[in-house]
Each structure stands twice: as structure tokens, then as C-alpha cells.
Design goal:
Layout (H helix, E strand, L loop, with lengths): L4 E7 L3 H12 L4 E5 L6 H6 L7 E2 L3 H5 L8 H6 L2 H10 L4 E3 L4 E4 L5 H13 L3 E4 L2 E6 L2 E6 L2 E5 L1 E6 L15 H7 L5 E6 L3 E2 L13 E9 L2 E9 L3 E3 L7 H5 L4 E4 L6 H8 L8 H9 L3 H11 L6 H8 L2 E3 L3 E2 L7 E5 L17 E3 L13 H22 L2
Parallel strand pairs: 1-2, 1-10, 2-6, 10-20
Antiparallel strand pairs: 3-5, 4-5, 7-8, 8-9, 11-19, 12-15, 12-18, 13-14, 13-16, 14-15, 16-17
Helix pairs in contact: 1-13, 9-12
């Protein structure tokens, strides 16, 4: 396949690339899939180690509201949560919905689903090529470094599913952006998304590392989220804080409401009760039934404690973590930045490179964890794959 022929090239072997290949094969087209790593879908498999959250079962309007780009709406309308469930069940996976609406395979792991998916794609004729790293364009061809040396492919259509810029060891290293810029194509700068926070703790916090802070409301800028976070030696991590990444990234201070179901006035009333010979910290612990983690955070972040009950109640509803900073981008679950939608047409084809389509995390969009990321990768992969198939039909 060195001449320009009517086959499709998919670069990137994650969920978006595999879904694009699936759509192309289903339409009857030959597909070469090139992956830089020795095996496919490494980040997908890593995500499944703690339970593969494929999507979130909720009404369409609420589901779409989790994404920051309206351009994703047609893709999500075509392949939303119900479609994700049907697709996984079609691969022999028994699914269940958790109490928060998150959808998981009954076995929780990604590997059984991936094995079935790859077996189906192989049966449809997928030509897999691993350790093939794309190194740029050469005239109208695609240049690769491979174990056998340099190779040049000239497909009639190409789907790029090259990932973002986090978890480089799993394949998403963002190196493709340099090739885009060298070719004069737009790329929005990468930035961490769904990231843990670095916090400088004092030594007395060490006994609480690994403990969860439950049922709190986290705020930064105009964003807020109710959930749980885990204290660690490095700072804070968990679903409670991940959705606030854009605001923290923009420099807004993180605050924690430890008592989201308790009005400030009620907290002040409890704290104003006579405390006798108790210390203020003991009075606080008993009056509000503090957990050890809550008490440790209060003592860490509010010393000296305000003696006025109203002032103290106000602080407890918005504990400031002024030292919080985002962890390095490569540790983030996902990234913002990538190919801007303005550089693409409605089929996700690059306006400046006809016949080249983009999908997945390499597109410039953000969404929280909880199944939203994976659903959009699958949906954009399917969308771009179908668009590439239509392009080939006209070849």
C-alpha cells in the first residue's frame, strides 16, 4: 500500500481510533491502523483497572451540559449513553448502572471488552501496525518510523486519533502537535484537565494521608462541585475537585464547604453555645461532630481560629486552600487544548487538509470524569470514521 489507493489510514489505537476503524470497516473499506506503542488502547486499559466507567446514564440535556463545546452536540446525539450501553452489550459485556448513574461492565475491567472488540475488528480485516510512530507529512503521504525503518503511506482518507498530552508513557504524549505546527495547522496549547492538586501540608497532616473527605462542596471561581476528595502527601485528588480544574488553572483559589447541608446561621448558632472550660477546638469538634479529617483541615487552614461564632461559621463554609496548584500535566486524567473546532468542518475534517479527519482527545474540548470523556472519544471516533467512509465512497 505505498501508492495512493482507496483505503483508510487510522493513526492512534485508543478508543477514538478503534471506533473510527470500526465505522470504516463496517462501511466496507480497507483500514490500516498505525499505533506508536507496542499494543493498543493502553490508556483505556489503565482507566479500567479501577473500574471501567464507560458513560453516565442521564437525560440528554444534562449529559450534554457536562461538555464545554457545543460542537460536540451532534456527535453525542448520535452516540450517547444509551448507544454506549448497546454497543458494549453487543460486544458481549453485561452492564450495570451504579447509584450515581455511571455505567460499568459487570466485570468492571476494560480488558474483556477490548479483547472482544479487537477480535471483531480483526475479523473484519483490520490491518494493525504497532510501533509505527507518525513523524509528519511528506508531500501527499504520511511518514512513519517503524521497526523496519521509515515507511510512507498514501491513503485516500485518514483519521487522526492521536490523543492529548497526559500519561505520555501510555501513548498520549502530544508530540503530534509539533507536526501540525510545522505544517502551518492550528493547535491550541495543551493544559491539564481533571487534575489533582498540589498542596503544601504541615507535618501534622501526615496521619490523614489516604483518608477521604466526603460530602463536601468544592468551589473555585464560578465553578462548584459536590463530591469526595482524598488527602495525600502531595495534596488533594478525586472526583470532587477534578471538575474545578479550569478555574484553578485560571488562578482562582479553591475553597471547601465542609457542611453543604448546614446553613451558615445554624453553624454560628451551634458555635455560640457556652463551651465552659473546653478549648475552642474541642468545642468546635463536638458542636459540629467533626470527623478527624475535617478537624485536621480546619486546624490546618484556619489557625488562628476566629473566636467570633459568626466569623468562624463563615470560614467553615469556605475553607481556603491558598497554596493549591495543579499537578503536572502528564499526571492529569485528560488535557484541554489540541485541534480547535474552528480548524475543522462539521464532519471533523481539517479544512486545510481535505480527506484528513480528527477525533478523540486531540480535539480541543473538556469534560469532567464520570464517563463523559470516554463517551465523547467514542462518539467523535464514530463520527469521523463515518465521514471518512463517505469520503472514500466518492473516491
Amino acid at each position: 500500500m505505498t501508492d495512493r489507493t482507496a483505503y483508510a489510514l487510522v493513526i492512534g489505537g485508543g478508543p477514538a481510533g478503534l471506533m473510527a476503524a470500526d465505522a470504516l470497516l463496517d462501511a466496507g473499506h480497507a483500514v490500516v491502523l498505525a499505533e506508536a506503542k507496542p499494543s493498543l488502547a493502553r490508556k483505556f486499559l489503565m482507566a479500567g483497572k479501577s473500574g471501567l466507567n464507560l458513560t453516565k446514564m442521564e437525560p440528554p440535556d444534562k449529559f450534554r451540559a457536562a461538555y464545554d463545546r457545543a460542537e460536540l452536540r451532534p456527535m453525542l446525539d448520535m452516540f450517547g449513553p444509551d448507544d454506549v450501553r448497546s454497543w458494549a452489550e453487543g460486544l458481549g459485556q453485561e452492564m450495570f448502572t451504579g447509584s450515581t448513574g455511571r455505567l460499568f461492565p459487570r466485570g468492571m475491567k476494560a480488558s474483556p471488552l477490548l479483547r472482544r472488540w479487537l477480535a471483531r475488528l480483526d475479523g473484519m480485516g483490520l490491518d494493525r501496525r504497532v510501533r509505527w510512530r507518525w513523524t509528519g507529512w511528506e508531500a501527499d503521504g504520511w511518514r512513519f518510523d517503524t521497526p523496519e525503518g521509515g515507511r510512507l503511506l498514501r491513503p485516500a482518507a485518514t483519521v487522526l486519533a492521536l490523543g492529548g498530552a497526559s500519561w505520555a508513557r501510555l501513548g498520549s504524549d502530544g508530540r503530534w502537535a509539533e507536526q501540525f505546527r510545522n505544517a502551518g495547522l492550528s493547535v491550541a496549547p495543551f493544559a491539564p484537565s481533571n487534575a489533582a492538586l498540589s498542596v503544601t501540608w504541615s507535618p501534622h497532616m501526615a496521619p490523614h494521608f489516604g483518608a477521604p473527605l466526603k460530602n463536601a462542596v468544592f468551589r473555585a471561581g464560578m465553578l462548584e462541585n459536590r463530591g469526595e476528595a482524598i488527602l495525600s502527601a502531595g495534596g488533594l485528588e478525586g472526583g470532587g475537585i477534578y471538575p474545578l480544574t479550569p478555574a484553578v488553572r485560571d488562578g482562582h483559589c479553591l475553597t471547601i464547604d465542609l457542611f453543604p447541608d448546614l446553613p451558615e446561621a445554624e453553624i454560628a448558632t451551634r458555635l455560640a453555645r457556652p463551651r465552659g472550660k473546653q478549648s475552642l477546638s474541642n468545642h468546635l469538634r463536638k458542636a459540629l461532630r467533626l470527623s478527624p479529617v475535617q478537624q485536621a483541615l480546619i486546624m490546618e487552614l484556619t489557625r488562628p481560629l476566629p473566636s467570633d461564632a459568626t466569623a468562624l461559621a463563615r470560614v467553615l463554609k469556605a475553607l481556603p486552600i491558598t497554596t493549591a496548584q495543579l499537578r503536572p500535566m502528564d499526571e492529569a486524567i485528560s488535557t484541554a487544548g489540541g485541534v480547535p473546532f474552528e480548524a475543522l468542518d462539521t464532519s471533523l475534517m481539517l479544512k486545510n487538509r481535505p480527506g484528513t479527519f480528527c477525533a478523540g482527545e486531540m480535539l480541543d474540548w473538556e469534560a469532567p470524569t464520570g464517563g463523559y470523556l470516554l463517551t465523547a472519544c467514542l462518539a467523535t471516533g464514530l463520527w469521523s470514521g463515518q465521514a471518512a467512509a463517505r469520503w472514500l465512497d466518492q473516491w
